[in-house]
Write the C-alpha coordinates for this entry.
Amino acid sequence: MPLRKKISVTALIEEKGASVYWINDDETVHVAVAEMNRHRIGSLIVKRDSKVVGIFTERDVLTRVVTSGRDPKVTMVREVMTADFKWITSDSVVEDVMQLMTDERVRHLPVLEGDQAVGMISIGDITRWLLKVNQMEADNLRRYVSDEYPG
Ligand SMILES: NC(=O)c1ccc[n+]([C@@H]2O[C@H](COP(=O)([O-])OP(=O)(O)OC[C@H]3O[C@@H](n4cnc5c(N)ncnc54)[C@H](O)[C@@H]3O)[C@@H](O)[C@H]2O)c1
Protein backbone atom coordinates (compact mmCIF):
# COMPACT_ATOMS: atom_id res chain seq x y z
CA MET A 1 0.00 0.00 0.00
CA PRO A 2 1.62 3.36 -1.01
CA LEU A 3 1.81 5.16 2.31
CA ARG A 4 3.21 8.47 1.13
CA LYS A 5 2.75 9.23 -2.52
CA LYS A 6 -0.48 10.55 -3.90
CA ILE A 7 -2.26 10.90 -0.58
CA SER A 8 -4.72 13.76 -0.90
CA VAL A 9 -5.47 16.44 1.65
CA THR A 10 -8.88 14.81 2.18
CA ALA A 11 -7.14 12.13 4.29
CA LEU A 12 -5.61 14.77 6.58
CA ILE A 13 -8.91 16.64 6.92
CA GLU A 14 -10.70 13.38 7.76
CA GLU A 15 -8.10 12.86 10.50
CA LYS A 16 -7.96 16.38 12.02
CA GLY A 17 -11.58 17.42 11.26
CA ALA A 18 -12.99 19.96 8.82
CA SER A 19 -13.48 22.73 11.38
CA VAL A 20 -12.58 26.19 10.07
CA TYR A 21 -11.98 29.13 12.40
CA TRP A 22 -12.66 32.45 10.74
CA ILE A 23 -13.22 36.13 11.38
CA ASN A 24 -15.01 38.93 9.54
CA ASP A 25 -12.68 41.42 7.84
CA ASP A 26 -14.19 44.38 9.75
CA GLU A 27 -13.28 42.92 13.18
CA THR A 28 -10.30 44.45 15.02
CA VAL A 29 -6.90 42.77 15.30
CA HIS A 30 -7.46 42.64 19.08
CA VAL A 31 -10.61 40.51 18.63
CA ALA A 32 -8.85 38.31 16.05
CA VAL A 33 -5.85 37.63 18.27
CA ALA A 34 -8.19 36.78 21.18
CA GLU A 35 -9.96 34.30 18.88
CA MET A 36 -6.64 32.70 17.84
CA ASN A 37 -5.54 32.39 21.46
CA ARG A 38 -8.94 31.00 22.47
CA HIS A 39 -8.52 28.14 20.00
CA ARG A 40 -4.71 27.94 20.41
CA ILE A 41 -4.19 28.37 16.66
CA GLY A 42 -1.97 30.55 14.53
CA SER A 43 -4.33 31.57 11.72
CA LEU A 44 -7.87 32.72 10.92
CA ILE A 45 -9.69 32.61 7.60
CA VAL A 46 -10.98 36.11 6.81
CA LYS A 47 -14.48 36.51 5.39
CA ARG A 48 -16.54 39.39 3.93
CA ASP A 49 -20.22 38.76 3.18
CA SER A 50 -19.60 35.02 3.91
CA LYS A 51 -16.95 34.78 1.20
CA VAL A 52 -13.29 34.01 1.91
CA VAL A 53 -11.22 37.14 1.18
CA GLY A 54 -7.96 36.43 2.97
CA ILE A 55 -6.04 34.86 5.84
CA PHE A 56 -4.75 36.47 9.05
CA THR A 57 -1.81 34.75 10.77
CA GLU A 58 0.68 35.14 13.63
CA ARG A 59 3.16 36.31 10.98
CA ASP A 60 0.80 39.11 9.91
CA VAL A 61 0.59 40.25 13.53
CA LEU A 62 4.38 40.40 13.75
CA THR A 63 5.12 41.96 10.35
CA ARG A 64 2.08 44.22 9.74
CA VAL A 65 0.86 45.16 13.21
CA VAL A 66 3.66 45.08 15.80
CA THR A 67 6.50 46.17 13.49
CA SER A 68 4.50 49.07 12.05
CA GLY A 69 3.27 50.14 15.48
CA ARG A 70 -0.40 49.78 14.67
CA ASP A 71 -2.91 49.78 17.55
CA PRO A 72 -4.61 46.33 17.58
CA LYS A 73 -7.69 47.86 19.24
CA VAL A 74 -8.44 50.13 16.24
CA THR A 75 -6.79 48.29 13.33
CA MET A 76 -9.20 46.19 11.29
CA VAL A 77 -8.25 42.74 10.09
CA ARG A 78 -8.75 43.73 6.44
CA GLU A 79 -6.01 46.38 6.79
CA VAL A 80 -3.36 43.81 7.80
CA MET A 81 -4.57 40.44 6.49
CA THR A 82 -2.94 38.57 3.59
CA ALA A 83 -5.33 39.00 0.65
CA ASP A 84 -3.30 37.22 -2.07
CA PHE A 85 -2.98 34.10 0.04
CA LYS A 86 -1.94 30.62 -1.10
CA TRP A 87 -4.63 27.95 -0.89
CA ILE A 88 -5.22 24.30 -1.82
CA THR A 89 -8.17 22.04 -2.65
CA SER A 90 -9.35 18.74 -1.11
CA ASP A 91 -7.66 16.75 -3.85
CA SER A 92 -4.29 18.47 -3.50
CA VAL A 93 -1.56 15.89 -2.89
CA VAL A 94 0.41 15.97 0.40
CA GLU A 95 3.78 16.08 -1.39
CA ASP A 96 2.69 19.13 -3.39
CA VAL A 97 1.35 20.80 -0.23
CA MET A 98 4.75 20.36 1.46
CA GLN A 99 6.47 21.84 -1.61
CA LEU A 100 4.08 24.82 -1.63
CA MET A 101 4.63 25.47 2.09
CA THR A 102 8.39 25.34 1.56
CA ASP A 103 8.53 27.43 -1.63
CA GLU A 104 6.07 30.07 -0.43
CA ARG A 105 7.25 30.06 3.22
CA VAL A 106 3.68 29.60 4.51
CA ARG A 107 2.58 27.39 7.41
CA HIS A 108 -1.19 27.60 6.93
CA LEU A 109 -3.06 26.67 3.73
CA PRO A 110 -6.85 27.09 3.57
CA VAL A 111 -8.63 24.30 1.71
CA LEU A 112 -11.09 26.01 -0.63
CA GLU A 113 -14.06 24.92 -2.74
CA GLY A 114 -15.01 27.96 -4.79
CA ASP A 115 -15.08 30.92 -2.38
CA GLN A 116 -15.84 28.72 0.63
CA ALA A 117 -13.31 27.23 3.08
CA VAL A 118 -13.77 23.49 3.73
CA GLY A 119 -10.71 23.02 5.96
CA MET A 120 -7.27 24.24 7.00
CA ILE A 121 -3.94 22.43 6.72
CA SER A 122 -1.00 23.65 8.77
CA ILE A 123 2.64 22.63 8.86
CA GLY A 124 1.93 20.83 12.13
CA ASP A 125 -0.71 18.69 10.43
CA ILE A 126 1.81 17.69 7.78
CA THR A 127 4.43 16.88 10.44
CA ARG A 128 1.95 14.75 12.35
CA TRP A 129 0.98 12.96 9.14
CA LEU A 130 4.60 12.23 8.23
CA LEU A 131 5.29 10.91 11.73
CA LYS A 132 2.36 8.54 11.37
CA VAL A 133 3.44 7.41 7.89
CA ASN A 134 7.02 6.83 9.05
CA GLN A 135 5.75 4.75 11.96
CA MET A 136 3.54 2.68 9.66
CA GLU A 137 6.41 2.12 7.21
CA ALA A 138 8.71 1.06 10.07
CA ASP A 139 6.04 -1.37 11.35
CA ASN A 140 5.57 -2.78 7.84
CA LEU A 141 9.30 -3.25 7.40
CA ARG A 142 9.61 -4.87 10.83
CA ARG A 143 6.77 -7.28 9.97
CA TYR A 144 8.38 -7.98 6.61
CA VAL A 145 11.81 -8.64 8.12
CA SER A 146 10.36 -10.86 10.84
CA ASP A 147 8.57 -12.66 8.03
CA GLU A 148 5.09 -12.14 9.45
CA TYR A 149 3.72 -11.93 5.90
CA PRO A 150 2.08 -15.16 4.63
CA GLY A 151 3.64 -17.12 1.71
N1 LIG B 1 -0.48 17.02 18.15
C1 LIG B 1 -1.13 17.40 17.10
O1 LIG B 1 -2.04 16.77 16.67
C2 LIG B 1 -0.74 18.68 16.41
C3 LIG B 1 -1.40 19.07 15.24
C4 LIG B 1 -1.01 20.26 14.64
C5 LIG B 1 0.02 21.03 15.19
N2 LIG B 1 0.62 20.58 16.31
C6 LIG B 1 1.74 21.36 16.92
O2 LIG B 1 1.25 22.65 17.29
C7 LIG B 1 2.27 23.63 17.06
C8 LIG B 1 1.77 24.72 16.12
O3 LIG B 1 1.23 24.10 14.98
P1 LIG B 1 1.22 24.79 13.55
O4 LIG B 1 2.50 25.49 13.32
O5 LIG B 1 0.84 23.74 12.59
O6 LIG B 1 0.12 25.92 13.63
P2 LIG B 1 -1.25 26.12 14.42
O7 LIG B 1 -0.99 26.29 15.87
O8 LIG B 1 -1.94 27.22 13.72
O9 LIG B 1 -2.04 24.75 14.15
C9 LIG B 1 -2.55 23.95 15.20
C10 LIG B 1 -3.78 23.22 14.66
O10 LIG B 1 -4.82 24.19 14.43
C11 LIG B 1 -5.31 24.07 13.10
N3 LIG B 1 -5.69 25.41 12.62
C12 LIG B 1 -4.91 26.53 12.57
N4 LIG B 1 -5.63 27.59 12.08
C13 LIG B 1 -6.89 27.10 11.82
C14 LIG B 1 -8.11 27.68 11.28
N5 LIG B 1 -8.16 28.97 10.97
N6 LIG B 1 -9.19 26.89 11.14
C15 LIG B 1 -9.12 25.56 11.47
N7 LIG B 1 -8.02 24.94 11.98
C16 LIG B 1 -6.93 25.71 12.15
C17 LIG B 1 -4.15 23.50 12.30
O11 LIG B 1 -4.65 22.86 11.13
C18 LIG B 1 -3.55 22.52 13.31
O12 LIG B 1 -4.28 21.30 13.29
C19 LIG B 1 3.46 22.89 16.43
O13 LIG B 1 4.38 22.57 17.45
C20 LIG B 1 2.82 21.63 15.89
O14 LIG B 1 3.73 20.54 15.80
C21 LIG B 1 0.28 19.44 16.93
The domain at 9-121 is CATH 3.10.580.10 (CBS-domain). The first helix runs from residue 9 to 16. DSSP finds six helices and five strands in the chain.
